[in-house]
Amino acid sequence: MTRTISIAPDKLPEPGARSLTFVDGRSVVLLNIEGVVHAIDNSCPHNGASLANGRLDGRILQCPAHGLRFDVVTGCVVGASGMCLTKLDVETVGE
Ligand code: FES
Fold first, then answer.
1. Contact 86/46 with Cβ under 8 angstroms?
2. Class of 4-92 per CATH?
3. Phi, psi for 46 (deg, rounded to 5)
4. What is the Å distance from ligand 1's center to 9 Cα?
5. Are 78 and 55 in contact, with CB atoms under 8 Å apart?
6. Which atom of ligand 1 is least distant from the CA of 47?
7. For a tag site, which of 25, 33, 47, 55 has the least CB within 10 Å?
8. How confident is the model over 36-94, as pLDDT tens digits?
9. Which helix (H) or strand (E) holds 36?
């Protein structure tokens, strides 16, 4: 089951940008990929490294620890199967 987080519109990153937020004590990275905001747990599924400062190339986010590359849209490792980010649905609340 995918969890949904609520974010105020002024906290959403601009296209091509990202931001770090905390929801219920959980560190979450918001990435705006071509106008769509994706939310992922700030923990690499490989070994738990922070993904907040990973290199972002289009929709591909590279973990700074060991270099695995994740497709932010699908959430999964590029060119392999089985290892995926924890993605969260985003709903905007307020004005
Ligand atoms: S912790 Fe991210 S690739 Fe190893």
1. no
2. mainly beta
3. -75, -55
4. 31
5. no
6. 1
7. 25
8. 999 999 999 999 999 999 999 999 999 999 999 999 999 999 988 889 999 999 999 88
9. strand 36-41
Q: Are 93 and 7 in contact (CB under 8 A)?
A: yes
State the maximum Cα–Cα separation within the chain, in Å, rounded to a whole number.
40
Residue type, 22: F
Residues whose beta carbon lies within 6 Å of some atom of ligand 1: 44, 46-47, 49, 63, 65-66, 68
Estimate the share of the chain in helix, then strand, then coil, as percent rounded to the nearest 5: 5, 45, 55
Q: Which residue has the tokens 């609520």?
A: 6
- Position 40, amino acid: I
